[in-house]
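Subject: sequence -> structure tokens, single chain

Hey, anyone have a minute? Need the predicted structure for the following. Not urgent.
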Amino acid sequence: MKAKLWSAMLGILLTGCSEAASDGGTQAGALPTTQSPVPIRPQEPPAPLPPPTLMGSWMGIYTCRQGETGVELEFTRETPGGGEGVFRFFALATNPGVPAGSFAFTYQRTGDTIKLFGKEWLNRPETYYMLDAELTLSPDMAVIKGLISQDGCSYIEAKRR
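Reply:
Had a minute. Here:
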């Protein structure tokens, strides 16, 4: 009984398909077979994304004559190709004699290269000077590290907080 029912339903379906094909495909809901397809325009490539932001706080260490020193780089303003921030330094448990201090900086950014330039003191310990540095941003945007250009200094590295 079930086999006859399925056979009958299949016959109706096949008959409906052949009727749609025999009338040129003009039944309601079907496209006429004489129409040509609408051409598809190629998609324009998406606009390049702006470089991810440096904004925020980065914590780490740097080394100069006074020894290994804690650092916080806070990027406070971005403009196309650069911006401004604050360089804060402080003692570490391994070097407790380092005084705290801070200065404003400007920076230039080209891709993953950041050139940092000391601008003005906010809190200057005696005998300290502002630093300039050339930094590289890691591909995952989590670490910046590089070299400090003043005599007696070497590297700096900081991680995004």
